[in-house]
Amino acid sequence: MSASITGRIVAVTGGARGIGRAIAAELTARGALVVIGDIDLHAAADTADALGLAGAFALDVTDADSFADFLRRTEQGVGAVDVLINNAGVMPVGKFTEETDALTRRILDINVYGVMLGAKLVLPGMLSRGRGHIVNISSLAGENPTPGMATYCASKQAVLSFTETMHREQRGSGVRFSAVLPTFTRTEMIAGTRAPLGLLAEPDDVARAVARLIARPRRRVTVTRRAGWFAALDKVTPRPVGDFVTRRLGIDRIFLDEVDRSARAAYDERVRENH
């Protein structure tokens, strides 16, 4: 596996923290040349220094000029991007009726438009070389409705549908498209909440799944497998039964009534600051 990753030039969006940082660390350890982009350049630079990455640049995935500059600087400094990992995302939680229009747009701009924009910008070069891989970080929440995360769930379903469509559209081009669907992952995104028993992943779990996906491309992978099985079972379970299980696991409450807002304050503030 490591041999097939060694020397690959990988660009990771939202790479300063959480899953993005874990992916950058894992791929660097396997010999890839990793460049991260993040709206927080200071944090990105610190991460790059700590992990020995090939580079770190400012990146606002909702801005076409910023994304194009990120890819251009990566190519000038390291080389043409072999793998783009669209990881940047935000996950505010709470009642949809209390979500501001600005926040709804922010979620969709980062989680959906940012993914599509990255693919649109990197694809021409990949197609001209006849090779490349675009890995989009979706979520199991995109297939399993979760109260308190209406816009987030919708955004991740959009990412999954986009990835599947591009997989078919670019069949035979040499460019691969893959989706990664993590369960609740222990990052700042879930601060102030509790994941249901057995359905919690670590950032390193996602990072290892991404590494395996780059080495042996597949259309999609779930993290963890147990959470993936649960999600698949839920899709074929009669609605009343599924609703009962959701209530018993507390999934209908954890992102609504049971959120510790003080524990999420730092994360929520950073999301608001970047409106």
Keywords:
single chain; 275 residues; alpha/beta; Rossmann fold; two-stranded parallel sheet; 15% strand
SSE diagram, text form:
Blueprint: H1 2-5, E1 9-13, H2 18-29, E2 33-38, H3 41-51, E3 55-58, H4 64-77, E4 83-86, H5 101-129, E5 132-137, H6 150-169, E6 175-182, E7 184-185, E8 200-201, H7 203-215, E9 220-223, H8 225-236, H9 239-249, H10 265-273
Helix pairs in contact: 2-7, 4-5, 5-6
Question: Can you give a write-up of this model?
Answer:
This protein has 275 residues and is α/β, with parallel strands linked by helices. It has a single domain (2-273), classed as NAD(P)-binding Rossmann-like Domain (Rossmann fold, 3-Layer(aba) Sandwich), CATH 3.40.50.720. The chain has 10 helices and 9 strands. The strands form 2 sheets. A 7-stranded parallel sheet has the order 3-2-1-4-5-6-9, sandwiched between helices. Strand 2, helix 3 (41-51) and strand 3 (55-58) form a beta-alpha-beta unit. Helix 2 packs across helix 7 and helix 4 runs parallel beside helix 5 (101-129). The protein is globular and about 50 Å long. The N and C termini lie far apart (40 Å). The model has no long low-confidence stretch (mean pLDDT 92).
CATH topology description: Rossmann fold
Give the tally of β-strands. Answer: 9
Overall CATH class? Alpha Beta
- Biggest sheet architecture: 7 strands, parallel
Query: What is the percent of helical residues?
Result: 40-55%
Could you say what the CATH architecture is? 3-Layer(aba) Sandwich
> How many independent structural domains?
1
What's the overall geometry?
globular
Spatial order of strands in the largest sheet? 3-2-1-4-5-6-9
Low-confidence stretches: none
Strand-pairing-aware structural class: alpha/beta
